[in-house]
Amino acid sequence: MTVDQIVPVQYVAGPHGLRLAHRFLAGTEPALVFLPGYMSDMAGGKAEAVLAHAAATNRACLLLDYSGCGLSEGAFAEGTLSRWRDEVVALIAALGIDRAVLCGSSMGGWLMLLVARALPQTVRALVGIAAAPDFTDWGFDAAQKAALAAGQTLFEDNPYGPEPTPTYAAFWRDGQAQLQLDGAIPFDGPVRLIHGQADADVSWETSLRHAAALRSADVQVHLIKDGDHRLSRPQDIALLLHTLDELVGALAGGA
């Protein structure tokens, strides 16, 4: 069954006046909410696997495209973490989701922390996949930061496509205002961080810093020795779905 057969793409007006594309599958809560990475969208393999698994288990699920990404309106150059956080929060509210498990891939693993801060009563658990909080800080050298601070756009080689990856000054400045790892992250629910030790984009040590910063005592880091940044192999996706099932089961048992 294709994702279109499971649930079609729908649109809702976002908080900044742009139509946001999403797929929402009604079902049992907590709903699984998948947050894509930088320049990614809801058509990725992990997102679609989560949706298909939710359909098979009668679980509510939300996939979405941030403004400027995928099928949503807007310009990518205008995207920031704050804007995309507000969009996720608005979508969750518009769809009437009361309890959610956020599943963030790469940049989505940073964004899930911001959404959890904004919706402390709704977000019950977090799952990071090669989560990349604070990458505007540790991901650039001093010269690159100086260029971004001066308002320049940075272009870097893209290992996943022919076009270079841009970083816009507005995104970088907003990211620097949203750093998470140097203080306590006020989240007390269960957190699972999955990271490949062959990740060439986000060091697996980032997940250890992430785990240490979280206030929750229920934090586990799962390292995959030969796993890359995408973690999209069948065995990686199987681990992700098993992790989600365990979290949902634990939340249901504690309800």
Description:
The chain has about 260 residues and is α/β, with parallel strands linked by helices. The chain has a single domain (about 5-135, about 190-255), classed as Rossmann fold (3-Layer(aba) Sandwich), CATH 3.40.50. About 35% of the residues lie in helices and about 20% in strands. It is built from 9 helices and 10 strands. Strands 1-2-4-3-5-6-9-10 form an 8-stranded mixed sheet, with helices on both faces. A two-stranded antiparallel ribbon has the order 7-8. Helix 4 links the parallel strand 5 and strand 6. Helix 3 crosses helix 4 (about 105-120) and helix 6 (about 140-150) packs across helix 7. The model has no long low-confidence stretch (mean pLDDT about 95).
Properties at a glance:
alpha/beta, Rossmann fold, 9 helices, 10 strands, 36% helix
Supply the number of helical segments.
9
Domain count: the total is 1
Distance between the termini: 32 Å
Strand arrangement, major sheet:
1-2-4-3-5-6-9-10
What is this structure, in a nutshell?
This protein has helices spanning 3-6, 45-56, 81-94, 107-118, 135-138, 142-149, 169-176, 205-213, 234-254, and strands at residues 10-13, 19-25, 28-35, 59-64, 100-105, 123-129, 154-156, 165-167, 191-196, 219-224. The protein is an alpha/beta fold.
Question: Which SSEs are present, and which pair or pack?
Answer:
Layout: H1 3-6, E1 10-13, E2 19-25, E3 28-35, H2 45-56, E4 59-64, H3 81-94, E5 100-105, H4 107-118, E6 123-129, H5 135-138, H6 142-149, E7 154-156, E8 165-167, H7 169-176, E9 191-196, H8 205-213, E10 219-224, H9 234-254
